[in-house]
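Case 187 in the screening queue. Each case pairs one protein sequence with one candidate compound; here the compound is 5-O-phosphono-beta-D-ribofuranosylamine. For every case the pipeline is the same: read the inputs, emit a complex structure as tokens, and attach any notable structural observations.

Predict complex for case 187.
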Amino acid sequence: MKMKNVAVFISGRGSNLEAILKKRDIGAIRCNIPFVLSNRHDAKGLQIAQDNGIKTLVVNHRDFATRQEFEEKILDLTKQYSIDIIVLAGFMKILSSYFVDTFAGPILNIHPSLLPSFPGLHSQKRALEYGSKFAGCTVHFVTNNVDAGPIIAQEIIPIFDDDSEESLSLRILDREHILLPEALQIV
Ligand code: GRF
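Case 187 output:
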């Protein structure tokens, strides 16, 4: 079967991108990655992509008068590079229903909670404040509702009494690095 073209979208650190690249290097995922896209030029993950010989593109939403123009630019790039699948790996811009409906393939997102609990920002902190005994991460298809699409894969971890937001986030992140490549390979 022809290998799929996967575009990874990031906004920051890029540790999930790095996890995907490592799994690809050892053959656990089979895909082409024609480009990594960031909406921020200072995203650390851009360097990770470049160190792995992957093309990087920065499309800054601030350079566009409207969200639709910003999204049209990204959609043009996905067409130009024949992208089959988009992975949102810490991409901090919400894609509108226009984008989701126009892009022909699946869009995956990784979220640091057991969805449908704690969608949106600061999920780990909110899980702690709520007194949840379990946390985790979820990879799901992106639909028109934020953090609410069908779940592809999910991983559960216990919350310990002495967890801080940082310790919990780090333990979840470790699992994200396993879950996201697995989910991508499934799709
Ligand atoms: C991760 O916690 C992910 O679940 C969330 O944003 C963070 C991205 O981290 N959507 P990184 O940039 O992959 O290191």
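Case 187 observations:
- Residues 17 and 156 are 21 Å apart (CA to CA).
- The helical segments are 15-25, 45-51, 67-80, 97-102, 123-130, 165-186.
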